[in-house]
Amino acid sequence: MKKGIDCVGIFTAGISHDGNGNVLFRRRGPGARDERGKWDPGVGGSLDHGEALEDSLRREFQEEVNTEPLSMEFLGSIEKFRTLEGVETHWIGFFYKCLIDPEKVVLDGQEADELIWSPFDQYPDPMMIGFEDTFEKFRKHFQ
What we know:
Layout (H helix, E strand, L loop, with lengths): L8 E9 L4 E7 L10 E2 L2 E4 L6 H13 L5 E14 L2 E13 L12 E8 L11 H8 L5
Parallel strand pairs: 1-6
Antiparallel strand pairs: 1-4, 2-3, 2-7, 5-6
């Protein structure tokens, strides 16, 4: 069974900030599951069976940016329906606002191949599908 395709997928995502008004955006690299070349406003991924939400998010931070959040604040959840390459997907995401040290971020070059720090409303283009509803829902937490 494929998560998000054959059954509802569950993921955690951390919208990372530096404590000075900037958010981390990563360009999805050649090893990303989908939407390669698009900018991703979060660090995260699918939840493993038996894994707690915050443990999943900590694991994803280690895998994707080689650091751990200094703090995590739960923001809420969003249900996402997307069509990618003709395939309908269904995911439920649990989002967190995560403070990280920009000096400790290291990309692996596969999941993501470039990063920028930018104010919340000044995001790069092209962004991942569906980021608008996420940003709109959580905007108040970054002002």
